[in-house]
């Protein structure tokens, strides 16, 4: 009887020790994932900011250090979308070389190609045209890169998109084609929203 009680007490003691040790390790380990997430978040924030201003060296360094080249901000903008819209050719090259998804859109479905076409960056459009994306890929309003280029008379870009196979027959949600947009006086919302106040001057031409 005594032996059974002793074995029961020892079993209970072992169980308590296991629970205590498990709780201790759990508490000790809890901050680690949070720290990693914070570090990743900060690195991605710097990456997005560097892509916006075209700091190719910083973008390259952060990507090589492990920052996700597919990072997104609260509006869904990726480093590639920001770099393409703001005309940073070398930064776009670095990001494409890192294997980013050139076809990815923001929360409204706007892609890097749409942003470059909107601003008339023919050199960047040429790079993006070489990616395996549908040239007539549309955003949530049915607007394509050709529509954006046609609206502002970006003829070099229009020609490049046509050579790639962009169709002028495609119509957006409002029923307008690229030719209709070329004749209209009303501009659609820019594919990339204005930058924070510190970079306001850089985007004033898009509004």
Number of strands: 0
Distance between the termini: 88 Å
Compressed to H and E, one letter per element, the order equals: HHHHHHHHHHH
Roughly what percent helix?
55-70%
CATH architecture, by name, is Alpha Horseshoe
Q: What radius of gyration results from the CA coordinates?
A: 26 Å
Mean pLDDT: 79
Strand content: under 5%
CATH superfamily: Ankyrin repeat-containing domain
What shape does the CA trace take? Answer: elongated
InterPro entries: Ankyrin_rpt (IPR002110), Ankyrin_rpt-contain_sf (IPR036770)
Keywords: ANK repeat, Repeat
Pfam families: Ank (PF00023), Ank_2 (PF12796)
ANK repeats: 42-74, 75-107, 141-173
Describe this structure in words.
This protein has one domain (38-193): Ankyrin repeat-containing domain (Serine Threonine Protein Phosphatase 5, Tetratricopeptide repeat). The protein is built from 11 helices and no strands. The chain has helices at residues 2-29, 31-53, 56-64, 79-85, 89-97, 112-119, 122-129, 145-151, 155-164, 178-183, 200-203. It is elongated. Pfam families: Ank, Ank_2. Residues 164-207 are annotated as: Disordered.
Give short descriptive properties of this protein.
57% helix, 11 helices, Ankyrin_rpt-contain_sf, single chain, repeat, mainly alpha, disordered N terminus, ANK repeat, 207 residues, Ankyrin_rpt, Serine Threonine Protein Phosphatase 5, Tetratricopeptide repeat
């Amino acid at each position: 009887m005594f032996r059974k009680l002793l074995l029961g007490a020892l079993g209970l003691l072992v169980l308590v020790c296991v629970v205590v040790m498990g709780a201790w390790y759990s508490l000790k380990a809890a901050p680690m994932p949070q720290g990693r997430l914070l570090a990743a978040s900060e690195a991605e924030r710097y990456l997005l900011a560097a892509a916006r201003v075209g700091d190719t060296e910083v973008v390259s360094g952060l990507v090589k250090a492990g920052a996700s080249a597919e990072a997104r901000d609260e509006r869904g903008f990726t480093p590639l979308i920001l770099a393409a819209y703001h005309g940073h050719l070398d930064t776009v090259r670095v990001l494409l070389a890192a294997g980013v998804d050139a076809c990815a859109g923001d929360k409204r479905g706007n892609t890097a190609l749409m942003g470059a076409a909107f601003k008339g960056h023919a050199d960047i459009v040429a790079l993006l045209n070489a990616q395996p994306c549908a040239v007539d890929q549309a955003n949530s309003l049915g607007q394509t890169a050709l529509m954006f280029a046609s609206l502002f008379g970006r003829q070099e870009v229009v020609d490049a998109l046509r050579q790639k196979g962009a169709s002028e027959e495609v119509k957006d949600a409002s029923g307008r084609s690229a030719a209709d947009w070329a004749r209209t006086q009303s501009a659609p919302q820019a594919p990339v929203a204005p930058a924070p106040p510190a970079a306001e001057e850089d985007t004033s031409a898009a509004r």
